[in-house]
From TrEMBL:
Domain Guanylate kinase-like stretches: 10-189
Annotated residues for binding of ATP: S17, P18, S19, G20, A21, G22, K23, T24
PANTHER family from the UniProt entry: GUANYLATE KINASE, GUANYLATE KINASE-RELATED
GO MF annotation terms: ATP binding; GMP kinase activity
Organism placement in taxonomy: Bacteria, Pseudomonadati, Pseudomonadota, Alphaproteobacteria, Caulobacterales
The protein's name in its UniProt record: Guanylate kinase
Entry-linked Gene3D superfamilies: Guanylate Kinase phosphate binding domain (3.30.63.10), P-loop containing nucleotide triphosphate hydrolases (3.40.50.300)
Chief location of this protein within or outside the cell: cytoplasm
Catalytic activity: GMP + ATP = GDP + ADP
Record keywords: ATP-binding, Cytoplasm, Kinase, Nucleotide-binding, Transferase
Organism for this UniProt entry: Brevundimonas nasdae
Function: Essential for recycling GMP and indirectly, cGMP.
Protein family according to the UniProt entry: Belongs to the guanylate kinase family.
InterPro entries noted in UniProt: GK/Ca_channel_bsu, Guanylate_kin-like_dom, Guanylate_kinase, Guanylate_kinase_CS, P-loop_NTPase
Pfam families: Guanylate_kin
Length: 213
């Protein structure tokens, strides 16, 4: 009999953390190692920056178009950030999941909450914790992307973000990157194997039961 493993429904994997806890590095490695996992591309009203590519980094649209999509409830989540709007269109995500493709969200806890509320059957939420706030501060300093006052604000905000980890399905402490990555990959693999996502199981089971022995 055939060993075909389709059709299946995709996984909507949402990874969140305080800034500096390592979620983006973990997500990049997960995507690099898994060709079937694609990053949700956000839509924004801000202007395109040098080196950015429309459709790869963001989908760049005008304010009127963004507002039209809000009015049509076409976003899984959206927010105003420093005078610009950012959002995750629902259509491409729904299409990917229905076609058996897995979608990754690298997002904050508010966005994770909103996406999970819109997609309760598909969403798998993972929260990444730092081993300590002091280590979080050290990582933020080491990456040299922010001024000292911004770093201290990010560390202070981390407490408020950590309070929301109870709403997530899985919680990982990113003390050792390789071990944390292995745990995240295990979660992803396990969720791909959930019976309700593998629509082929019913026919496969029936074929097994109908085999002559």
């Amino acid at each position: 009999m055939s060993n075909e493993r389709s059709p299946r429904r995709g996984v909507l994997l949402i990874v969140a953390s305080p800034s500096g806890a390592g979620k983006t590095s973990l997500c990049r490695r997960l995507m690099a190692d898994h060709g079937g996992l694609e990053l949700s591309v956000s839509m924004t009203t801000r202007g395109i920056r040098p080196g950015e590519v429309h459709g790869r980094d963001y989908n760049f649209v005008g304010h009127d178009e963004f507002q039209r999509l809000i009015d049509e409830d076409a976003f899984l989540e959206w927010a105003d950030v420093h005078g610009n709007r950012y959002g995750s269109p629902r259509g491409p995500v729904d299409k990917a999941l229905a076609e058996g493709r897995d979608v990754l969200f690298d997002i904050d806890w508010q966005g994770a909450r909103d996406v999970a509320e819109k997609c309760p059957e598909d969403a798998v939420r993972v929260f990444i914790l730092p081993p300590s706030l002091e280590e979080l501060r050290r990582r933020l300093v080491t990456r040299s992307q922010d001024a000292d006052d911004v770093i201290e604000r990010r560390v202070a905000n981390a407490k408020g973000e950590i309070e929301h980890c109870d709403a997530f399905d899985y919680v990982l402490v990113n003390e050792d990157f390789d071990r944390s990555y292995a745990e995240l990959a295990h979660i992803y693999h396990a969720e791909r194997s959930r019976r309700f996502r593998n629509l082929w199981v019913g026919d496969y089971k029936a074929a097994l039961l109908n085999e002559a022995v």
